[in-house]
Amino acid sequence: QTCALPIWMIAVAVDLSQLYEARVRLQNAAEQAALAGASQVDYVAAERGSASLLPSFGAACTSAGNAFSGVAGSTACVSPEGTDEVVATVTVQAPVAMPLPVIGGSFTVTATFTAAPVLGGQTPVG
Predict the structure, then answer these.
(1) CA proximity to 19, closest of 115, 85, 102, 110
(2) d(Cα 52, Cα 38) in Å, to the nearest integer?
(3) For residue 78, how many other CB atoms are within 10 A of its CB?
(4) Which of 33, 67, 102, 121 could, after both became Cys, cross-link 90 (CB 3.0–4.6 A)?
(5) Are 28 and 94 in contact (CB under 8 A)?
(6) Are 74 and 32 in contact (CB under 8 A)?
């Protein structure tokens, strides 16, 4: 007796591994983007006791996420107002084509990461 896996089980395993790889890649992109956005600290405002990001935080965050994900226009960055710390949150989405028709045509994989700036020991700019 031989134990042979049906071809559909192999196809499902390959499809699931593609989804996992896409999820890991996008999680890395979201992390890099959030860190890039959180690094855009307005040190002059921080010196006055008001933590805030420079207006360039969105552009830095978005371009880092798009570069790491390899999908232009897939990154959205926000910094919630009304908090004592500044947080950059990034969501990266990219469709993953699935060749097995039983599972579906494509899935959207989403990854989110939140980062806050580190202000200790930094000197104001300008």
Answers:
(1) 110
(2) 10
(3) 15
(4) 33
(5) no
(6) no
Task: Tell me, letter by letter, the H, E, C secondary structure of the chain.
Answer: CCCCCCHHHHHHHHHHHHHHHHHHHHHHHHHHHHHHHHCCECHHHHHCCCCCECCCHHHHHHHHHHHHHCCCCCEEEECCCCCCCCCEEEEEEEEEECCCCCCCCEEEEEEEEEECCCCCCCCCCC
β-pair partners for 95: 108
Tokens linked to 21: 């790889």
Please list the pLDDT of the chain residue by residue as tens digits (126 residues).
Answer: 555 667 766 666 767 777 788 888 888 988 999 899 888 888 888 778 776 788 888 899 999 988 988 878 888 888 877 655 556 678 877 777 766 655 556 677 888 888 888 766 554 443
Torsion, CA 82, CA 68, CA 76, CA 19, rounded to 10: -110
Q: Whose CA is closest to 41, among 65, 57, 30?
A: 57
